[in-house]
Amino acid sequence: MKHHFITIEGNIGAGKTTLAHLLSKKLNARLILEEFADNPFLPKFYDNPKQYAFPLELFFMAERFKQLKEMLHTKDLFQSVTVSDYLFTKCLLFAKVNLPEEEFRLYQKLFDIIHQQLLFPDILIYLHAPVSKLQSNIRKRNREYEQHIPDDYLFSIQETYTSFIKQHNITTIFVDASNADFLGNEKHLEVILDALNKDYEDGQHYITLP
What integer best gives the mean pLDDT of the chain? Predict the structure, then answer.
């Protein structure tokens, strides 16, 4: 495998965790999954975003940092590849959408101090799906607190991700995931595995699923 640290990103409901599970099995890779369910502020945030955005984002940053630092600094003799379903910079991207300016500036200072201690992935797989597909996936997985996420919020997250990837020229496999069915269609997974076997220059490399 050309890449030893693979990260999957995308909007809420894009299919990150499903793909991470499948790739880790195929590649016999160590799997790092976001432990979002442990965040006590998440249901409260969806009910009252203004009041709970700052503690929500602080909790996420602390948990992600702890998890990535532990996992990436413990060498596994049997698994040379690691697959993660989130990028640590996600903290900053969501905070940018969710926090007022003064709180965001404080948050960014904390982020800048700690993110330097982490490894950056060799390659990013970004799953890009239209908001209608995201909403359909969100309904299917049926987490109660997610059922009323406005389209506008998903659009904001989408724009923040795509502009970050383009501005920073990150080596990214940019997947059109509008018809993605990684569980039901084996060809979709094969396309991703083939893409991971190629050498890439910096920047975005676009692929579509059959």
Answer: 93
Instruction: Report residue 153 as tokens.
Output: 């919020």
Assigned token pair, 39: 């965040």
DSSP category for residue 77: S
pLDDT in tens, 126-161: 999 999 999 999 999 988 888 999 999 999 999 999
pLDDT tier, 77 (very low <50, low <70, confident <90, very high otherwise): low
Does 74 score more than 80 pLDDT? Answer: no
Q: Is residue 149 part of a domain?
A: yes
Tell me, what amino acid is at 43? P
Residue 167 sits in a domain whose CATH number is 3.40.50.300
Distances, alpha carbon 88 to alpha carbons 32, 78, 92, 189, 208, in Å = 12, 25, 8, 24, 26
Catalytic positions, written as ranges:
85
**81 located within any domain:** yes
Gap between the Cα atoms of 89 and 126, Å rounded: 13
pLDDT category, 1, cuts 50, 70, 90?
low
Q: Give per-residue burial for 135-174: e unless 16+ CB within 10 Å, then b.
A: bebbeeeeeeebeebeeebbebbbebbbebbeeeebbbbb
In a domain, 174, yes or no: yes
- Structural domain containing residue 56: 10-208
User: Within a domain: residue 1?
Assistant: no
Give me the number of domains the chain comprises.
1
Using a 10 angstrom Cβ sphere, with 0-12 exposed, 13-18 middle and 19 or more buried, the burial of residue 67 is: middle
